[in-house]
Specification:
The complex is a heterodimer of chains A (306) and B (338). Chain A is mostly helical. Helices cover 72% and strands 0% of the residues of chain A. Chain A is elongated, with a radius of gyration of 33 Å. In chain B, helix 5 crosses helix 11 (209-260). Classes of the chains: A mainly alpha (306), B mainly alpha (338).
Chain lengths: 306, 338
C-alpha cells in the first residue's frame, strides 16, 4: 500500500493540503451517500413537499457542520478569537482570513449534495408535483379538485397501479425533472463564476494584507502544534522522573523494613539499575498496590536520586 | 509501486506538469459526468431547443472555468499583473504566455464534453427534432395539421413512449437522421480541434522562438520563486514558533522562582539534556499555571536577542521583527531580464 502512503504523505505535507484532502473526501462521501440513499417519496398531498425539501436541505446542513468539525483550523481560529489579549495583539485580518478559508472548505460538500440532488431530479419531482397546474396536462384536466391533488401527489410513485402507464404522469415527471436539472446546472454555473472571479480579482485588492494574514494564520497553526509537541515531550520526561522517584522511595522503604543489605557490585550493574532494587514477588506486589492506592505527588523538583 | 511514485513526483515537479495531470483527470471526469447524467428531454416545442443547447454548451463553460479555478497559476498571474513595479520590471510577454498556457489546458475538458455529447447524439436530437425536413423524410400521405400541432408532434420524437406522429414521420427515421448529423458534427469537431492543436504545436517554432523560450523560462521562474518563498516563510514560522515557546517557558519558570523567593536552584549534577528539556517546570501547579498562562496571556511576537545567542540546542533563527509583517526575503542575486 505504498501508493496510499505516498498520497497520504502528500496531503500531510502542509495543513492546507490536509484540509483540501478532507474537503475532497467529504464531497466524495456526499455523492456516495446520495447514491446509496433509498429515496422513497410518500406520495401523499401534504407530506410530499416536506419530504422532498427535507431531503434536499437537511443533509447539506449536516455535511456543513461535519466540515466545520473535521477541520482542525476551526478550533485554532476559535481559540485565537476568544483568547484574552494578554501580551500579544489580536489581528482581526488573520481571524477573518481563517474564518473565510474554513467556510469555503466546509461549503463544498453541501453544495455537491444540492447539485447532485437537483441534477437527479427526484427531490424536486416529489416536492412540487402537487403544485403543478393540472390544466396543462391532458390526463388531469377534467378531474375534480380533490382527486386531482391526490393524483398529482402520486406522480413520483411510478409503481402505483393508477399511475403505472399514465402518460400524463410521465409528462409531469419529465417537466419537473427538466426544471430541476436546469436549476442544478444554473447553480453550478453561478458558483463557478463566483469562484473564478474571487480567484482572479483577489490579488487586485490588498494583496499585501492577504500575504500577511496567510502567513500569520499559518504561524498560529504551527505554533499550536509545536506547543503540543513540547508539552508531550515534557510530560514524557516528567512521567519518567516521577516514576523513578516512586521506585526509589519504594526501594528505600523496603530497605528500611526488611533489613536486607543491597547486593553490591554483583552481576551486571545495568540489570541492577533496571530492577530498581525490587527483586522478589512480594516486593513487586507491594509496589503495584502502592501505585494504585497511593499515587506519588506530581512534583519532581527534588533532585533525582540516582 | 516505484513507477507510481515516479509518475507522481514527475507531475509534482512543477506547476505545469501538475496542471497536465489535473487536466487529464478533468477530461476523464467530464466523460464520467456525462455518462452519469440522466439526459431528460422535455419533449415540448420551445423547451427542447433551450434544453438541448443548454446541455451542450453550459457544462463546457463550467468545466472551462473550473480549469482556471483549479489552476494555482491564475492567482499568480493576477498578482504579477497587478503588482507595483518596484525594483523589478514587468514583462507582458510572460503574462501572455502564462495566460495562454492556462487557457489551453482549461480547454481540454470542455472539448471532451462537447465531442462526447455530439457523438452520443441525444442533445442534437432533442434540440433539433422540430426542424426535421418533413418534405424529404415525412410520409407521403399525412393528415393536414396546423403548424402548432406539427411542432408539438415533432417535439415528442425523442420521447419514444409518447410519440404519436407515426403517420407524419416514422420515429426511427427521424432519430437516425438527427443522430447521423450529430455524429458527423462530432467527428468534424474532433478533427478540427486536433488539427488546431497540431498546427499550434508545429508552427510555433517558426515564430519568435527565442522570445517564446524567454517567456517560458521566466514564467517557470516566477512559479518556482513563489513556491520557495512560501517554503521559506513556513520554515521561518517554525523556527520562530520554537524559539517563542522556549522563551515562554523560560519566562514562566523565572517568574515562578521570583514569586516563591526560592534561591535559584543549581542544576543537579546529572542535569544534562533531561533537566533542560523539563524547561524548569517540575510540578503540577507550575504546569497548570503554564497552560493557563498560554491561553490567557500569549507571549508577544517578539523574540529576545540574548536568548538566541546561547546554544540551547534549538536552532532558532527568528530575528525580532518590529511589527508582524511578512518576514524578510532571503537575499538572492537578481538577474536582469536576459
Amino acid at each position: 500500500m505504498d501508493r496510499f502512503r505516498m498520497i497520504f504523505q502528500y496531503f500531510q505535507s502542509s495543513s492546507e493540503s490536509v484540509m483540501n484532502g478532507v474537503c475532497g473526501l467529504l464531497a466524495l462521501a456526499s455523492v456516495k451517500m446520495y447514491t446509496s440513499f433509498d429515496f422513497s417519496c410518500p406520495c401523499l398531498p401534504q407530506y410530499n413537499m416536506a419530504y422532498g425539501l427535507g431531503i434536499m436541505l437537511v443533509p447539506p446542513v449536516i455535511l456543513f457542520l461535519c466540515g466545520l468539525i473535521l477541520n482542525r483550523q476551526s478550533l485554532v481560529m476559535l481559540e485565537e478569537w476568544r483568547r484574552p489579549q494578554g501580551r500579544r495583539k489580536k489581528d482581526l485580518a488573520v481571524i477573518r482570513y481563517m474564518c473565510s478559508s474554513i467556510m469555503q472548505r466546509a461549503m463544498v460538500a453541501p453544495v455537491v449534495w444540492i447539485v447532485v440532488t437537483l441534477l437527479d431530479g427526484k427531490c424536486l419531482i416529489c416536492a412540487f408535483s402537487g403544485s403543478m397546474d393540472p390544466e396543462k396536462f391532458v390526463g388531469f384536466a377534467n378531474v375534480s379538485t380533490v382527486q386531482v391533488q391526490q393524483l398529482l401527489a402520486k406522480v413520483p410513485c411510478k409503481d402505483d397501479e393508477l399511475m403505472r402507464n399514465n402518460t400524463s404522469r410521465k409528462a409531469v415527471s419529465r417537466y419537473l425533472r427538466c426544471w430541476s436539472q436546469v436549476l442544478g446546472w444554473s447553480i453550478l454555473l453561478i458558483l463557478i463564476i463566483a469562484a473564478f472571479l474571487a480567484r482572479w480579482l483577489r490579488p487586485c485588492f490588498n494583496q499585501a494584507t492577504l500575504l500577511q494574514a496567510r502567513h500569520w494564520s499559518n504561524y498560529i497553526d504551527i505554533e499550536q502544534k509545536i506547543f503540543e509537541e513540547t508539552c508531550c515531550e515534557h510530560s514524557q520526561l516528567f512521567a519518567h522522573k516521577c516514576i523513578l522517584h516512586f521506585f526509589e522511595s519504594m526501594r528505600q522503604e523496603i530497605k528500611l523494613h526488611s533489613f536486607s543489605l543491597p547486593k553490591e557490585g554483583e552481576g551486571a550493574e545495568g540489570e541492577e539499575d533496571h530492577l530498581q532494587g525490587i527483586t522478589d514477588q512480594d516486593q513487586v506486589n507491594k509496589l503495584l498496590k502502592m501505585w494504585y492506592y497511593e499515587k506519588p505527588p506530581l512534583d519532581v523538583s527534588q533532585a533525582a536520586p540516582t | 509501486m516505484d513507477k507510481f511514485r515516479m509518475i507522481f513526483q514527475f507531475f509534482q515537479s512543477n506547476q505545469e506538469s501538475f496542471m497536465n495531470g489535473i487536466c487529464g483527470i478533468m477530461a476523464l471526469a467530464s466523460t464520467q459526468m456525462y455518462s452519469a447524467f440522466d439526459f431528460n428531454c422535455p419533449c415540448l416545442p420551445h423547451y427542447n431547443l433551450a434544453y438541448g443547447l443548454g446541455i451542450l454548451l453550459v457544462p463546457p463553460f463550467i468545466l472551462f472555468l473550473l480549469g482556471f479555478v483549479l489552476n494555482n497559476n491564475i492567482s499568480m498571474l493576477a498578482e504579477e499583473w497587478r503588482r507595483p513595479q518596484g525594483q523589478r520590471g514587468k514583462d507582458p510577454a510572460v503574462l501572455r504566455y502564462m495566460f495562454c498556457s492556462m487557457a489551453q489546458r482549461a480547454m481540454i475538458a470542455p472539448a471532451v464534453w462537447v465531442s462526447v455529447t455530439l457523438l452520443d447524439g441525444k442533445c442534437i436530437t432533442c434540440a433539433f427534432c422540430t426542424s426535421v425536413p418533413l418534405d424529404t423524410l415525412g410520409n407521403a400521405s399525412h393528415p393536414q395539421l396546423s403548424q402548432g400541432e406539427v411542432q408539438r408532434v415533432l417535439a415528442r420524437i425523442p420521447c419514444k413512449e409518447i410519440y404519436t406522429g407515426q403517420q407524419l414521420i416514422a420515429n426511427e427515421v427521424a432519430v437516425r437522421y438527427l443522430r447521423c448529423i450529430s455524429q458527423a458534427l462530432g467527428w468534424c469537431f474532433v478533427l478540427l480541434m486536433t488539427t488546431l492543436a497540431f498546427l499550434v504545436r508545429s508552427l510555433r517554432p517558426c515564430f519568435s522562438q527565442a522570445a517564446f523560450l524567454k517567456s517560458r523560462y521566466w514564467s517557470h521562474y516566477i512559479d518556482i520563486e513563489r513556491k520557495l518563498f512560501d517554503e521559506t516563510c513556513a520554515e521561518h514560522a517554525r523556527s520562530f514558533a520554537k524559539v517563542c515557546i522556549q522563551q515562554f517557558f523560560e519566562g514562566m519558570s523565572k517568574d515562578l522562582v521570583a514569586a516563591r523567593c526560592h534561591l535559584p536552584r543549581k542544576a543537579p549534577a546529572d542535569a544534562g539534556e533531561a533537566a533542560e528539556k523539563l524547561l524548569g517546570i517540575t510540578d503540577w501547579g507550575t504546569m497548570n499555571m503554564a497552560l493557563k498562562s498560554w491561553h490567557r496571556c500569549k507571549p508577544p511576537l517578539h523574540l529576545h536577542p540574548p536568548a538566541l545567542s546561547t546554544g540551547n540546542g534549538w536552532a532558532g533563527e527568528g530575528q525580532p521583527p518590529k511589527h508582524p509583517s511578512a518576514p524578510r526575503r532571503e537575499t538572492a542575486a537578481y538577474y536582469s531580464w536576459v
